[in-house]
Amino acid sequence: MALPKSEMEHVDAKVFENAAVISNSEVATILSEYMRQRREEKPTFQPEPLVQKTLEYVQKFNCGTNPEAVQAMRNYMETFGLKPFEWGLIANLLPEDTDEATKLIPSLVDHPDDPPEEHRSILPEELDRILAELQNLRHA
Amino acid sequence: MFYYLTLSKSLDIHPKHFGPKLREVIREKLIAETEGTCTGKYGYVVAVTKVDDIGRGRIRQDQSGFATFEVTYGCIVCRPYKGEVLDAVVTNVNKMGFFAQAGPLQLFVTQHLIPEEFEFDSADDNSWVSSDSITRIQGGTHVRVRIVGIKYDPTEVFCIATMKEDYLGVIGSDFA
């Protein structure tokens, strides 16, 4: 799921149904590759100011510049049933412990109002372990 | 947050381009018309990475000679949502609050959503200083904020954000 449930109602569902979430590190990799290609095609290429600003932003705030490490982190997160937007947020914000993660990303906590089949029962200890493992993968 | 979306757009192409380079012209025109722009529906288009399909051109019936092509393309967009937490760089500070930039997105944090221990200091550069004078919010400071309100205009997205919650606040600086 690309967006929390409450947001999906406000967007064009057809398009966002198949949207892939991209973390800041991945955007940095994709954008620099894209700019390189454009420069090869046309040496006088000047990126739009907005695109340049975005590139600078993702190069400052990311979870690591090594594409393999980021891919390893993504694969690891997906084994725990985390929704795509949650994995994106964790990669961008890199919370250090369960308390920080659940405060910044409230959907990680099972809400009593949600139907039981959506409960994932991620225990706080499990979440701590997941976050610690992510830090390892990041520096590997 | 950034997403990879598949969108489609109608482009009008002048007959002078109806030659061997037509696909390139369509791609260049698509990039010129979408990259760097913003729609309320999909957020800011940051880069057009792939042109998936270019439909068959239909000649317009208005005697202009232009042909309309329906182009399907893959692109990276930045679309924030209410409640999202993200990092931003402070750009402008005034006594009502401060402006910050998160990539293509502009956010405003009003004074009411800045923790009480910060006070406005108009010496030199405007800044917000904490009561123990250790933390300073000024141009170039990195802050973590949560979006509390978004205005989706047809051509712009503007956000109001708060810094007044757990784990939000100053996280670094450009000059550290």
From TrEMBL, chain A:
| Top-level taxon in the UniProt lineage | Eukaryota
User: Ranges for the RNA polymerase Rpb4/RPC9 core domain?
Assistant: 14-140
Main location, first listed in the record? nucleus
Instruction: Provide a GO biological process annotation.
Output: DNA-templated transcription initiation
Single GO cellular component term: RNA polymerase complex
Q: Which GO terms describe its molecular function?
A: nucleotide binding
Alphabetically ordered keywords of this record:
Nucleus
Give compartment(s).
Nucleus
Q: Which InterPro entries match?
A: HRDC-like_sf, RNA_pol_Rpb4/RPC9_core, Rpb4-like, Rpb4/RPC9, Rpb4/RPC9_sf
| Matching SMART domains | RPOL4c (SM00657)
Q: Which family does it belong to?
A: Belongs to the eukaryotic RPB4 RNA polymerase subunit family.
Q: What is this protein called?
A: RNA polymerase Rpb4/RPC9 core domain-containing protein
TrEMBL record, chain B:
The family database entries (Gene3D superfamilies) matched by this protein are listed as: Nucleic acid-binding proteins, RNA polymerase Rpb7-like, N-terminal domain
Q: Listed GO molecular functions?
A: single-stranded DNA binding; single-stranded RNA binding; translation initiation factor binding
GO BP of this protein? positive regulation of nuclear-transcribed mRNA poly(A) tail shortening; positive regulation of translational initiation; transcription initiation at RNA polymerase II promoter
- Keyword presence, Cell cycle: no
All copies of domain RNA polymerase Rpb7-like N-terminal, residue ranges: 11-62
The superkingdom listed in its UniProt entry is Eukaryota
One Gene Ontology cellular component? RNA polymerase II, core complex
Location within or outside the cell: Nucleus
Please tell me where this protein is predominantly located. nucleus
Extract the InterPro entries matched here. NA-bd_OB-fold, RNA_pol_Rpb7-like_N_sf, Rpb7-like, Rpb7-like_N, S1_domain
Task: Please report the stretch or stretches of sequence annotated as the S1 motif domain.
Answer: 80-153
Provide this UniProt record's keywords sorted from A to Z. DNA-directed RNA polymerase, Nucleus, Transcription
Q: Family assignment?
A: Belongs to the eukaryotic RPB7/RPC8 RNA polymerase subunit family.
The name this protein carries in UniProt is DNA-directed RNA polymerase II subunit RPB7
